[in-house]
């Protein structure tokens, strides 16, 4: 089946932040091969800022999952808004809806059917509702970026995936620049992001402080975290952990910069020379911004989720608990990265 240059393509990726960042090489390849196509994305309000302002997209649509609804927002209003968005997309009569995930799940397929495109593209599934289908790779040992990028074959695109990409909000970058202030030309800025969603990925606060103390005199540090209390039901925060890091860091030149929105995190990371963080969304954003990364992995698949397309050093203990990574091992890995 031939793909027309002026086709309309809607890409659905409704997973976590890192998953969506790992989809950007596919988006870039579609734009390069089909410069006159209308290419849009359907995501959720949690990961939407990954694609806001992305140069390869004509539009970004987002709906709220019930668990991400705003304070005071009812479930009924969330479902109503989602229905209105689906009807809006249905009226656009897309040529293709691309399920841009190795395992999109039944929910993504239902969304695609609601939108009623001429073709649903993606990995083959048992019901046969994906009519433009690609078989899963039998080996199954690819990076997430590679696994998602294979779907480009459905649109006649061959080759290897390029780098990750993400636009940086200009106003957010200006705010971060003001907070960081001017530095001497020889002073490096190391962004240290201490938040991690999974408990096994969290490196202890005191170890972050010890690593920064070992590097004192070589760089300034930008401390980043998700603000809020640790037991918040929807958005756990690391205010308490950040205070422990700052108190333990002593005389380390440290700039504290909590990032409430994803655009603020990306803006701050864009100003750094190096990034130290755990596996997660921030790590993939840093890779999209071209930053060398020292990353801590706990109970996750390092072969599938390591930083893509940038220099990195990855530490993962046999226990698969990041808390067991020593500051000495982290310091050695960072030296190798420089």
Cα(first) to Cα(last) distance is 48 Å
Structural class: alpha/beta
Mean pLDDT: 93
Please give the number of β-strands. Answer: 12
Query: Regarding quaternary structure, how should these chains be classified?
Result: single chain
Radius of gyration: 21 Å
Mind explaining what this structure looks like?
- The protein is 33% helix and 18% strand.
- It is of the alpha/beta class and 338 residues long.
- β7 (188-193), α7 and β8 (219-225) form a beta-alpha-beta unit.
- α6 packs across α9 (262-270), α7 packs parallel to α8 (239-249) and α7 packs across α12 (327-337).
- The chain is globular and about 60 Å long.
- It starts with 7 loop residues before the first strand and ends with a helix.
- The relative contact order is 0.13.
- The mean pLDDT is 93.
Structure described in brief:
The protein has 338 residues and is of the alpha/beta class.
Keywords:
single chain, 338 residues, alpha/beta, 6-stranded parallel sheet, 12 strands, 33% helix, 18% strand
Helix and strand topology:
Elements: E1 8-12, H1 17-21, H2 24-33, E2 38-44, E3 59-63, H3 75-91, E4 96-99, H4 105-115, E5 119-123, E6 132-134, H5 144-149, H6 170-180, E7 188-193, H7 205-214, E8 219-225, H8 239-249, E9 254-258, H9 262-270, E10 274-278, H10 281-288, E11 293-296, H11 302-305, E12 312-315, H12 327-337
Parallel strand pairs: 1-2, 1-4, 2-3, 4-5, 5-6, 7-8, 7-10, 8-9, 10-11, 11-12
Helix pairs in contact: 6-9, 7-8, 7-12
């Amino acid at each position: 089946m031939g793909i027309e240059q002026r086709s309309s393509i809607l890409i659905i990726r409704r997973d976590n932040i890192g998953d969506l960042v790992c989809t950007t090489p596919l988006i870039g390849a579609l734009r390069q091969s089909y410069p006159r196509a209308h290419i849009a994305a359907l995501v959720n309000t949690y990961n939407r800022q990954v694609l806001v302002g992305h140069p390869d997209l004509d539009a970004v649509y987002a709906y709220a999952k019930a668990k991400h609804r705003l304070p005071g927002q009812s479930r009924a209003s969330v479902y109503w808004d989602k229905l209105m968005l689906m009807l809006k997309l249905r009226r656009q009569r897309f040529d293709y809806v691309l399920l841009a995930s190795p395992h999109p799940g039944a929910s993504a397929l239902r969304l695609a059917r609601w939108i009623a495109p001429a073709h649903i593209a993606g990995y083959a599934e048992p019901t046969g509702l994906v009519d433009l289908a690609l078989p899963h790779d039998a080996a199954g040992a690819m990076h997430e970026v590679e696994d998602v990028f294979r779907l480009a074959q459905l649109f006649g695109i061959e080759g290897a995936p390029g780098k990750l990409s993400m636009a940086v909000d200009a106003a957010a970058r200006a705010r971060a620049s003001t907070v960081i202030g001017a530095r001497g030309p020889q002073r490096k800025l190391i962004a240290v992001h201490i938040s991690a969603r999974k408990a096994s990925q969290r490196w202890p606060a005191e170890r972050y402080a010890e690593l920064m103390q070992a590097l004192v005199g070589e760089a300034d540090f930008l401390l980043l975290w998700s603000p809020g209390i640790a037991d918040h039901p929807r958005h756990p925060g690391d205010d308490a952990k950040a205070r422990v890091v700052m108190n333990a860091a002593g005389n380390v030149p440290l700039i504290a910069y909590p990032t409430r929105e994803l655009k603020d995190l990306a803006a701050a990371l864009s100003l750094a020379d190096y990034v130290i963080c755990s596996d997660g969304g921030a790590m993939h954003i840093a890779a999209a911004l071209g930053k060398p990364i020292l990353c801590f992995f706990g109970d996750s698949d390092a072969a599938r989720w390591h930083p893509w397309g940038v220099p990195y050093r990855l530490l993962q203990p046999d226990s698969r608990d990041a808390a067991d990574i020593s500051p000495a091992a982290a310091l050695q890995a960072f030296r190798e990265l420089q």
